[in-house]
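Annex B. Sample input.
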Amino acid sequence: MNNLFATGRIVYYILALMLVETVVLIILGKVTRRGMKPLDVVVALLAGAGLLLALRASLIGYSWPKIAPWLAVALCAHVIDLIRRWTRTTA
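Annex B, continued. Sample output.
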């Protein structure tokens, strides 16, 4: 278990689970015609993926210039997610 965290491989397993979650949510949305739109699912989970990749970079000892881009991806995805939700609820 130590090696899983020391190498940052734990992040890949979590990302794989997130990919499965994305596919399941999109399929459920299409089958039930309820839930989030596919793009909303992807954008919401992209923010988490960015944070996870920043975590991986940190776990394996990268310096801040290699961590910051992943945080920027997470921030951009989060802002896009908020804008999409905000405009939907106010329209």
